[in-house]
Every structure is written in C-alpha cells, then in structure tokens.
Amino acid sequence: MTARARVTVLTNPASGHGSAPHAAERAIRQFQKRGVDVVAIAGRDAAHARQLTEGALERGMDALVVVGGDGIISLALQVLARTETPLGIVPAGTGNDHAREFGIPTRDPEAAADVIVDGIVDTVDLGHIVGADGTRRWFGTVMAAGFDSLVTDRTNRMRWPHGRMRYNVAMVAELSQLRLLPFRLSFDGAEVSTDLTLAAFGNTRSYGGGMRICPNADPRDGLLDVTMVASASRTRLIRLFPTVFKGTHVHLDEVTTRRARTITVESPGITAYADGEYVCPLPVEVSAVPGALKILRPG
C-alpha cells in the first residue's frame, strides 16, 4: 500500500484547450492501479473550484492533485499555502511552468501520477502579494509588471484570434506603443526610482511557458529574484526576446537583477500578474515566504 492512500484530484476542464479532463482520466486510472483512493472534483468556475478544494482539505487527504496548468495551480496554492497537505501536479496546461521547475513529466499523465505516489515531499517557498486595494495572493512562479502585463491585459480584452496567436498579436500591438514606464521600487527598504520596460519577481525561474526570466531564482532560498529590463528600442527588445528562453538575457546591458525578501512595486496604470493570472493594480508589496508549500516531486 502506498504512503499516499487518498488523494483529491482537482481538474480545470478548460486547461490545455480542453485536454485536462482526458489527462485526469488517465491519471485517475493510474492511481487506481496503484491502489490509491481518489476523490475527483471539478469546479464550474474558479470560486466553485476553490470552495470544493477547501471542503476536500477539511475532510483530509494525503495530497491535492491538480490537473491543468499554472492557472488552476494558482487557485490550489491559495488553499494549500502554509498547510501540511502536499500539492501533486498532473500537467495539462499551455505553460506548465510549475511542472517544469520541479521536474514533473509534462506529456505523460501516468508518469506524473507515479511521481505523486512514489515521489518525495519537498518544502519550498511561495511568493505572496499584498495589494494597496486589499488583495492578498500567493504565487509559485513569477509576478510580472510592465510590458508583459500590458500584453496580458490586451490579450484578455481580445476576442480573436484564439490560443497562442492572440498573445502574439497583442505583443505586436504593445510593441508598436513601446515606452519606458516610471517605476518606484524598494528592495528590503532600499528605494529605487527608475524607468523600466518590465520588472519580473521570481520565486522560480520561468514563466510564459519556459521563458527563464529569472534564471537564477531558487524556491528554497527565502528570496525573490528580480529581473528589470529597460529598453525603449523595439529592435533591441525583439532581439532580447529569444535570449529569455535560455536565460542569457541577464548578461545584456538593458537588464539588471536584484535579490530581496520583500519588495514594494509602484508604477501608475500598471497591473500585476502572477502565475499568468491577473492579481491587482500596482502598488503592491511582494515577498518570499520561506517553506510555505509542500510539493511532490521526483525523488
């Protein structure tokens, strides 16, 4: 009998353009094969999914397994942060940056289920955002503000085209209006006023499906890695873009990096996104919270 005898499986039906329910079926079959008792939940919407997750947590389980992408993981983190219940991931989203960080197989629900049964429980940090408007939000990967949050704002307003293409169209539109944005930041109390294209605050290394925006971030060091890009030149920003997938952009002149436990971020008219999800308008205080999450990963 496995150490994880009872798991709750939370599925986002829309993840990965609707492929999550199929991935969930495959993972659940594998759990049953391995003698694990499964309770499956799927919310009608985010609020309902959260309610079901909180109910499952009260009843007790050996792990909460999330089938989907970083969006549904973000929802689970709001419930699991600072609890003893570990998070298991069966990746079925478009970005899968959490899975990438912790070495969880991405196109193989059975292998991901095996990691949940046989893997180790790792204790890692989470990021925590407190907005001036009262918002409080946990995140696992990266909080972004600036050019990329403007692109996401625009993507969310667009009805066409669909999928990745919509994001690309939004990016081209924002590039045509590229400008430096005034930022006021404080890093553990040290204040900086500067003009930036974007700022990213990483608990882990990647966002946006493998862009290693904070290539040296470590979710066990109690700190956030901050990557700041300052370029008003479209050509240079477009050239910088491919280097982000390798993480080599941090060596370029337009890029500066810092590390801090708590950072305040202010820029008029800019919103914060974390784990790819809308959080709130700036200003915010964002901090690393050591050991806030238990996560299952390969041993």
Automatic annotation (TrEMBL):
Q: Which cofactor does it need?
A: Mg(2+)
Q: Matching NCBIfam families, A to Z? A: PRK11914.1, YegS/Rv2252/BmrU family lipid kinase
Pfam families listed in its UniProt record: DAGK_cat, YegS_C
Q: What is this protein called?
A: DAGKc domain-containing protein
The biological process GO terms on file are: phospholipid biosynthetic process
Entry GO terms, CC: plasma membrane
Q: Belongs to which family?
A: Belongs to the diacylglycerol/lipid kinase family.
Q: Which GO terms describe its molecular function?
A: ATP binding; ATP-dependent diacylglycerol kinase activity; metal ion binding
Enumerate the PANTHER family for this protein. LIPID KINASE YEGS, SPHINGOSINE KINASE
| Annotated source species | Mycolicibacterium chubuense (strain NBB4)
Supply the alphabetized keyword list. ATP-binding, Kinase, Lipid biosynthesis, Lipid metabolism, Magnesium, Metal-binding, Nucleotide-binding, Phospholipid biosynthesis, Phospholipid metabolism, Transferase
Which superkingdom is the protein from?
Bacteria
Region annotation Disordered: where it falls in the sequence: 1-22
Q: Which SMART domains match?
A: DAGKc
| Ranges where the DAGKc domain occurs | 2-133
